[in-house]
């Protein structure tokens, strides 16, 4: 909630939603090192909460973020300095406004992130925090510049410069992503999908998973890129979770399993517990199980996390919103 009490600091709060890739097709690496993707994103109800506090004391030419505090069940390892993408996001909005509209007296701000999304888990948690921070900084600084918005295309461009998943975490819903995942087309879908998400205590580095896929392909040990999304698109339109489950696909999964063979046990445990289907989420190591109902998802999340040491289970529904200021 946004609140202003006399001279007290004004706070702005946003939800930063996680995502799962219901289809992730990865083509060859490009010259810039990124891989061309054909992916279908779905945003999830699971979200971090990002709060930006306008500290007043408007000065020009001072650092704009005074502090970043991280809390919550997945706070471990999240940076509390300018290496955090959310901090950079605030700086980028500031720079954009300064360059396009000139320097005016604007306030210093503080950031707080409550982490409910597993870190380094393939669920775009850091990207979602950055997307939320973009919207929060736009709202806070926009007041001083007398504008409501910097424009969706500017926000998308600033987001894409921060990370490939940031534009989707701004948009939310269900979307086809191409390019490096930043070129988006919203997709029509029916129904609500119930997910059991099994996070691992140990994260996986995204670049290392992409590199491993290239290695496996060079050695003839991974299949050709799955770049056709016709079947998953039709399944999502049907609203039939079983049909969607049958078409879940992730080209990065063999690479994630090669780096983390223990994830096979997690995938098996989810299927044994009654999931419709399960995949590694994005670059992993979180495993995402599509379930027939909310009750099934709760039971599967509980059962798998008890059975597999070093894991935590949580449930989520999709599709959900993009980053939104409350
Ligand atoms: O865009 P982002 O910073 O999230 O990407 C992290 C890393 O993941 C990249 O540096 C690259 O190694 C890999 N990546 C990729 N192709 C993509 C997206 C990410 O190779 N489409």
From TrEMBL:
Active site: 19, 165
Record GO biological process: isopentenyl diphosphate biosynthetic process, methylerythritol 4-phosphate pathway; terpenoid biosynthetic process
Pathway the protein contributes to: Isoprenoid biosynthesis; isopentenyl diphosphate biosynthesis via DXP pathway; isopentenyl diphosphate from 1-deoxy-D-xylulose 5-phosphate: step 3/6
InterPro entries assigned to the protein according to its UniProt record, in alphabetical order: GHMP_kinase_C_dom (IPR013750), GHMP_kinase_C_sf (IPR036554), GHMP_kinase_N_dom (IPR006204), IspE (IPR004424), Ribosomal_Su5_D2-typ_SF (IPR020568), Ribsml_uS5_D2-typ_fold_subgr (IPR014721)
GO molecular function terms listed in the Swiss-Prot or TrEMBL record: 4-(cytidine 5'-diphospho)-2-C-methyl-D-erythritol kinase activity; ATP binding
Database matches in Pfam families: GHMP_kinases_C (PF08544), GHMP_kinases_N (PF00288)
EC number(s) recorded for this UniProt protein: 2.7.1.148
Catalytic activity: 4-CDP-2-C-methyl-D-erythritol + ATP = 4-CDP-2-C-methyl-D-erythritol 2-phosphate + ADP + H(+)
Residues holding ATP: 118-128
Domain called GHMP kinase N-terminal: residue spans: 84-173
Physiological role: Catalyzes the phosphorylation of the position 2 hydroxy group of 4-diphosphocytidyl-2C-methyl-D-erythritol.
Family according to the record: Belongs to the GHMP kinase family. IspE subfamily.
NCBIfam families with a match to the protein in the record: ispE (TIGR00154), PRK03188.1 (NF002870)
HAMAP family linked to this entry: IspE
Protein name: 4-diphosphocytidyl-2-C-methyl-D-erythritol kinase
Native organism taxonomy: Bacteria, Bacillati, Actinomycetota, Actinomycetes, Mycobacteriales
Name of encoding gene: ispE
């Amino acid at each position: 909630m946004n609140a202003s009490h006399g001279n007290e600091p004004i706070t702005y709060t946003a939800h930063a939603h996680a995502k799962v890739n219901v289809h992730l097709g990865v083509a060859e690496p490009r010259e810039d090192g990124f891989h061309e993707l054909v992916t279908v994103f779905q945003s999830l109800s699971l979200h971090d909460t990002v709060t930006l506090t306008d500290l007043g004391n408007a000065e020009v030419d001072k650092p704009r973020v005074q502090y970043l505090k991280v809390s919550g069940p997945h706070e471990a390892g999240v940076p509390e300095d300018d290496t955090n993408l959310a901090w950079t996001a605030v700086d980028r909005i500031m720079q954009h406004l300064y360059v396009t509209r000139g320097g005016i007296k604007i306030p210093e701000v503080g950031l707080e992130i409550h982490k409910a999304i597993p870190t380094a888990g393939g669920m775009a948690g850091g990207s979602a925090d950055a997307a939320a921070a973009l919207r929060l900084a736009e709202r806070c600084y926009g007041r001083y510049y007398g504008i409501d918005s910097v424009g969706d295309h500017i926000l998308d461009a600033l987001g894409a410069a921060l990370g490939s998943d940031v534009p989707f975490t701004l948009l939310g819903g269900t979307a086809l992503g191409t390019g490096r995942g930043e070129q988006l087309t919203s997709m029509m879908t029916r129904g609500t999908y119930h997910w059991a998400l099994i996070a691992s205590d140990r994260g996986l580095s995204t670049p290392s998973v992409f590199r491993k896929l290239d290695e496996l392909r060079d050695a003839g040990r991974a299949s050709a890129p799955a770049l056709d999304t016709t079947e998953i698109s039709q399944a999502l339109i049907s609203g039939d979770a079983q049909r969607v489950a049958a078409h879940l696909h992730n080209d990065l999964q063999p690479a994630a399993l090669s780096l983390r063979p223990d994830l096979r046990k997690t995938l098996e445990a989810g299927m044994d517990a009654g999931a419709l289907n399960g995949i590694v989420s994005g670059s992993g190591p979180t495993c995402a199980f599509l379930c027939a109902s909310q009750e099934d998802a709760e039971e599967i999340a509980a059962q798998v996390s008890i059975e597999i040491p070093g894991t935590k289970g949580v449930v989520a529904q999709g599709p959900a919103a993009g980053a939104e200021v409350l």
